[in-house]
Design brief:
GO molecular function: protein-lysine N-methyltransferase activity
Keywords: Methyltransferase, Transferase
GO biological process, one term: methylation
Distance between the termini: 40 Å
Radius of gyration: 17 Å
CATH class: Alpha Beta
InterPro entries: Ribosomal_L11_MeTrfase_PrmA (IPR050078), SAM-dependent_MTases_sf (IPR029063)
Pfam family, one: PrmA
CATH architecture: 3-Layer(aba) Sandwich
Number of strands: 9
Structural class: alpha/beta
Largest sheet: 7 strands, mixed
Length: 221
């Protein structure tokens, strides 16, 4: 599908929440290798009406932001290409697709952006075209076929319904990497903390400074 058509479909999704908003290709702080179509920061520099706030809370266009944990995990991938090159990887809850794109950029043999939200799938496809990188799209984790070597996920632990996936990931792939800015002390027998990363959400949301410190967890053998 062509870029203009993808962009039109994605902005149609956005306008259901913010009718006058637009997307713009953005460079990312700390991640100059990639660009993403994200909410134009101009759209956020105003007060929102109560109805807009309600829609934002009910249907947040989260794929219109590149969240700090995604930035941090993508940066880690680009800085550690040997951990990804030639491997079959899946980016769970991919949103904008930034982690899947980073994996493709360093030579993953298969990079899957998996997200059940239609807007996220459109965003990942549009961002893949913007960067000239091949990725696959999936809307159902359980429908993905074939072997996986590595599963990555950024900012998925805030939702308690996602916690059971921690064990499912370990059963599915040889290795799992979880980046999270809200959960800094994950208590799970199958994971250990590798360290802390830095990542800033873009466009800027005025998040507390502590949310720019991202914990990185890796599955145990």
């Amino acid at each position: 599908m062509s870029t203009p058509r993808l962009l039109a479909q994605l902005e149609e999704c956005l306008h259901k929440v913010l009718p006058d908003a637009r997307l713009a290709p953005c460079s990312l702080p700390g991640l100059p290798e990639l660009q993403l179509w994200l909410l134009d920061p101009v759209n956020l520099d105003r007060a929102f009406a109560s109805e807009e706030t309600r829609r934002l809370l009910e249907q947040p266009p989260y794929w219109g932001f590149c969240w700090g944990s995604g930035v941090a995990l993508a940066r880690w991938v680009l800085d550690n290409p040997q951990q990804v090159r030639g491997r079959r990887v899946l980016d769970f809850g991919s949103g904008s697709g930034v982690v899947a794109l980073a994996c493709s950029a360093v030579g993953a043999s298969r990079s899957i952006a998996c997200d059940l939200d239609q807007g996220a799938q459109l965003a990942s496809a549009l961002n893949a075209e913007l960067n000239g990188l091949p990725i696959e799209l999936a809307d159902d984790y359980f429908a993905v076929t074939g072997e996986l070597d590595l599963i990555l996920a950024a900012d998925v632990l805030y939702d308690s319904d996602n916690r059971p996936f921690l064990e499912r990931f370990r059963q599915r792939a040889d290795s799992v990497l979880i980046a999270d800015s809200r959960v800094r002390d994950l208590q799970h027998p199958g994971y250990h903390r590798l360290g802390h990363l830095h990542g800033q959400t873009w466009p800027e949301l005025g998040e507390p400074v502590e949310f720019r410190q991202v914990a990185l967890y890796q599955s145990l053998p």
